[in-house]
Amino acid sequence: MTRPIVSLEGIHKIYGEGASRVHALAGVDFKVMPGEFVAVMGPSGSGKSTCMNIVGCLDVPTKGSYQFMGVEVESLDRDELAMLRRHYLGFVFQSFNLIARTGAAKNVELPLVYKGIPRRERRALAADALTIVGLADRLDHAPSELSGGQQQRVAIARALVTQPRLLLADEPTGNLDTKTSEEILNLMVELNQTRGLTIMMVTHEPEAAAYAQRVLMFVDGKLVQDGPPEEVLS
Amino acid sequence: MSPFDILRMAFGALTNNKLRALLTSLGIIIGVASVILMIHLGQSASRSVTQTISNLGSNLIIIQPARSKRGAGGQRIRADNFEIEDVDAIKRGIPGVMAAPAIFHGALLMYGSTARAGSITGTNNDYLDVRSWKLDAGRLFDPAEVASGAPVCILGQTIVEELYGERQPLGTTLRLDRNSCQVIGVLQEKGNTAGNDQDDVLLMPWRAVQRRFKGRDEVDLIFAGTRSSDQVPRIKSSIEILLRTRRGITGDEEDDFEVRDLQEIVQTLEQVTLTLTALLGAIAAISLLVGSIGIMNIMLVSVTERTREIGVRLAIGATARDVQIQFLVEASVLSAIGGVIGIAVGLGATWIIATLLELPLVISYPAVFISVGFSALIGIVFGFVPARKAAHLNPIEALRHE
Questions:
Q1: Which strands form A166-170's sheet, in the order they lie side by side?
Q2: What does pLDDT average to over chain B?
Q3: Which residue in A has a C-alpha nearest to residue B308's C-alpha?
């Protein structure tokens, strides 16, 4: 039996104290198996972002057990969480978040710098990752010289370059037009199917969620639906 | 992360905003340059003073009557001038000492159709030894000339140049007011010290000046000298005892004359320049401090501006320490670049000013190395707070930052 990549059991997340207490997550359980493409949906304030932050090892739960690749995450300190992110996680953001005035290849190299990969090897790996996302001819272009779709491709290459076990995408098409969104989503599907990359994607657009194999629907800090898109989105 | 990657990252971030980096460094550049300039000019001035004094004769002792002052009863006490017998008494009474009288008299010097005002010094051959003068041509006074007050003279280079030009002065007769003198010697050039032309000098036997110009038997000053400077204190006190006896001063009565040596003056002047250097250096250091605060300020702005970038770096696997080091190194690179440029500017300005003021150029390597070290330290100290702020950002909030 294969081990799940992500396993949440009875996860609670509580922000603030006293009157301003917010129960962002109120008992969430789910597992994500290797090779899955999961969409996370829900209205704003439903807890889906909090959940993704915990899954992404950016935050730890207040209560409950979160295992990432079999490791209990809540017992880890800041630096150990950083190590998990560095070696096993890739992030793609809504607003691309590339480093300004820095070439595409240099942006893609950045996670490898923190991994301590030598410069020559970094160059080659960054070029490979940019080739996968179809930007082999844009290695030295600064973000300002690229379209939104191209910037998001660079961001995906940056997430891919460390060969993560899990790619977390936070509204990756939120700042893109319909046609470019489709391109990005098709790229993600391709990465999932041809490379077996496990993907979790937060989105509020049903059209985007339809590209996934499985949809998690959050409402008021609880996971209310979990199933294939045709079932959840209907 | 390798150190090279950290440096490359810092340079990358700084070249992304070159103008800002330059303006930030400017504070350090000005600070370091002014510290370097002040310390070096102070040392140049001090060296200049020392050179001036040793030019005058480092083993020189100057004896002069005290300035008149009010005595116990309120009446003015006038100290008697010295006479030539005092000079002879010092020479005879104290072994190993040279003594020369000096009688100064202003006169119009004329040769042919050229004339200039000048000062005549009446003295003896010891004067040349005591004041570190050397003959360039001709001869010294012979004893008979000194004893009789013969109208002969020895000229300094300035007078030779201005009155004779290309002509040969030796053997000529120079007119001095209504008198005249025969030129028997020319002195070697000594140059300027402290803005005084040392070569503007005309020496005559003391008796000649007393008889022909002054009409009095007085001596303005006595210069005494020794062969080595460690004898100066002993000889000074011998001279004091001898003169007190000669002038009838007994018990605890105060001297009515002063015996000073140039060592004292050197020490006083060096103390003054040292104090001034320290003061100016301290003022310059304040500008360095202001520059340092500028670095801290800009780094804080930079951390705020790049909050989201920091969030991304943390998300893709940078540890808090990685981020802290990155910002510390950026601040240090800024201040180190400022420091290096500042040293270059400071040394350049020192060179220019020293050349213009004709001061000796002194390069103080400790001052340079301390400045380099200090400016690198500035980056670490003043970069610490911004770097810590960056490192302690919450990645989730940093990513959400607008």
A1: A89-92, A166-170, A198-202, A37-41, A214-219, A222-227
A2: 85
A3: A97
Cβ atoms of residues B220 and B103 within 8 Å: yes
Residue A88 sits at the chain B interface (C-beta within 8 Å): no
Confirm or reject contact between B177 and chain A (CB < 8 A): no
CB contact under 8 A, B313 and A114: yes
Of B259, B254, B256, residue with least CA distance to B238:
B259
In this prediction, residues B255-265 reach a mean pLDDT of: 80
Cα distance between residue A69 and residue A5, in whole Å: 5
Q: Is B400 on the interface with A (CB under 8 A)?
A: no
Rounded to whole angstroms, how far apart are CA atoms B243 and B327? 74
Which residue of chain A has the CA closest to B2? A116
In this structure, the strands spanning B152-155 and B179-187 are parallel
Q: How confident is the model at residue B58 (pLDDT cuts 50, 70, 90)?
A: low
Whose structure tokens read 């070029």?
A127
CA dihedral (A118, A119, A120, A125) positive or negative: positive
- Structural domain that includes position B185: 80-255
Q: In whole angstroms, give the CA distance from residue A138 to residue B355.
A: 56
Residue A26 has which token pair?
């109120």
Contact status, residue B109 vs residue B176, Cβ threshold 8 Å = yes
pLDDT of residue B77: 60
Chain B residues whose beta carbon lies within 8 Å of the beta carbon of residue A100: 16, 309
Q: What is the reported pTM?
A: 0.73
B288 and B198 share a domain?
no
Q: How far is A111 from chain B (nearest CA, A)?
A: 6
Whether B341 is covered by a domain: the verdict is: yes
> Do A78 and B319 make contact, defined as CB atoms within 8 angstroms?
yes
pLDDT band for position B347 (50/70/90)? very high
| Domain encompassing residue A16 | 6-232
Whole-angstrom distance, CA of residue B44 vs CA of residue B249: 43
Name chain B contacts of A59, Cβ cutoff 8 Å.
396
Interface contact A91, partner B, CB < 8 A: yes
Point out the residues of chain A with pLDDT beneath 70. 1
Are A113 and B309 a contacting pair at CB < 8 A?
no
**Is there a contact between B396 and A87 if contact means CB atoms under 8 Å apart?**
no
Specify the CATH number for the domain of residue A171: 3.40.50.300
- SS3 state of residue B323: helix
Q: What is the ipTM of this complex?
A: 0.94
Q: With 90 as the cut, is the pLDDT of residue B374 above it?
A: no
pLDDT tens digits, residue range B269-287? 888 888 888 898 888 888 8
Q: Could B314 and A83 be called an inter-chain contact, meaning their C-beta atoms sit closer than 8 Å?
A: no
Q: How many domains does chain B have?
A: 2
A209: in domain: yes
> Do B232 and B226 form a contact (C-beta atoms < 8 A)?
yes
Is B188 in CB contact (< 8 Å) with chain A?
no
- Distance (Å, rounded) from C-alpha B130 to C-alpha B15? 65
